[in-house]
Give the backbone structure.
Amino acid sequence: MNKKEQFLIDTLKHQKRVHELLIRFAQELLSRALKHDESKLSSPEKECFEKITGQRPSYGTDEYIEMKKTLGEGLIHHYKNNDHHPEHFKEGIEGMNLFQLVEMLLDWVAASERGGTDLEEAIKIGVERFKISPQLAEILQNTVKSL
């Protein structure tokens, strides 16, 4: 086999492997999309979150922090059962993988839209709150810009 043929074979094998991995990545994201926040629909979360329905304090405000405190056991349960929250991990954001980070970011986007909070400001608050590195913060901002 000559070099041109070997190059073609090697490149096609590489392409095929990357295709397989991207499809597996996409399948994981699809699975997460179908399961996102399911735990909010059953006890003890359901009852806790029903109490705050309609409240939309801006993310990071004192009012927001007070509202979160009222969730008590429901919020603890939510974090324990939903690994797209840094609170799920002892190490916080550093315990997360890329799938979890993507779901977290998209959760922030949807929550900002629902709550009327400026997304850039919400990301800044999240970056400070979870001690996200400047490099990862920039990646999160870049990702939002490309949505």
